[in-house]
Write a structure and sequence with these properties.
The chain is of the alpha/beta class and 256 residues long. Helix content is 30%, strand content 22%. The chain has nine helices and 13 strands. The strands form two sheets. Strands 5-4-3-2-1-11-12-13 form an eight-stranded mixed β-sheet. Strands 7-6-8-10-9 form a five-stranded antiparallel β-sheet. Strand 9 and strand 10 form a beta hairpin. The model has no long low-confidence stretch (mean pLDDT 95).
Length: 256
């Protein structure tokens, strides 16, 4: 029996065509809650970003953020965190300070970038999010970097790190997280906290960073707007975010 559903944000719950969560999706989430099924956000986003998007009023029971690096409960209290190894942070900060390519630093309570170019503007616009402010690094723990460049250049940078990997969410934008990180890492911590088993969860996603959780969940659902490579890792492919995909999948599996 499914006791919890984990939802990716961009392209899954949130439509960037309309800039909102479809009305049908909001109703479906409330229906799940009324049936006693917990709902969780599982996103590469920071809580600071979620507050600025049309998702802040959704009644989540918890948040897996920054691709599993920070997990929060319903009242947004910290349950788990896993910063990037300091040696890799030093390497990335050196590149950040050289300003050869745009790099965003994401800390527990702050997000900023070294400089902005058109690639940054285009990538941020595609996810309905403002360009972050420019600032300097002051030594705090880093949970995620975002590098804005061609994949070949980003991979060259990642090859200099000892324990990190990348998730692609735009042709010119890549999340850098710990090698052992990912949404499943955060989901496991949430399941432990809420005493839920792996075979009792369902997950929805559409991006490269959702593949691990679609494979891990008892039922992994890919959105119709997901890339084919993502869809092949799912148990079920539903309609797109703009065509009631969440509702159709939940009805198909008789959860609502």
């Amino acid at each position: 029996m499914i006791k919890a559903v984990f939802f990716d944000m961009d392209g899954t719950l949130l439509s960037h065509q309309s800039g909102a969560v479809p009305t049908s999706t909001k109703a479906a989430l409330m229906n799940l809650k009324q049936c006693g099924i917990k709902i969780f956000a599982a996103t590469g986003r920071h809580m600071m970003e979620l507050k600025e998007l049309a998702v802040d009023d959704l009644p989540f029971d918890g948040f897996v953020t920054l691709n599993g690096q920070i997990c929060l409960n319903e009242t947004r209290e910290l349950l788990y965190d896993s910063p990037i190894d300091y040696a890799d942070v030093k390497t990335m900060v050196t590149c950040f300070e050289q300003q050869d390519i745009p790099i965003m630093i994401i800390e527990s309570n702050n997000m900023y970038i070294n400089f902005v170019n058109q690639a940054v503007r285009d990538a941020q616009k595609a996810i309905s999010t403002a360009v972050p402010p420019c600032a300097n690094y002051h030594g705090d723990k880093v949970y995620q970097f975002i590098v804005f460049d061609k994949k070949t250049q980003v991979q060259h940078l990642i090859n200099q790190l000892t324990s990190c990997k990348i998730n692609e969410w735009n042709a010119y934008a890549f999340d850098v997280i710990p090698q052992k990180g990912g949404k499943v890492t955060g989901i496991k911590e949430m399941l432990k906290h809420y005493h839920i088993k792996q075979n009792e969860i369902m997950a929805f996603g559409d991006g490269d960073n959702d593949i691990d959780m679609l494979q891990y969940a008892s039922i992994g659902v890919a959105m119709g707007n997901a890339d084919k490579d993502v869809q092949k890792h799912a148990d079920y492919v539903t309609d797109g975010v703009n065509h009631d995909g969440i509702v159709h999948a939940l009805q198909y599996f008789k959860l609502i």
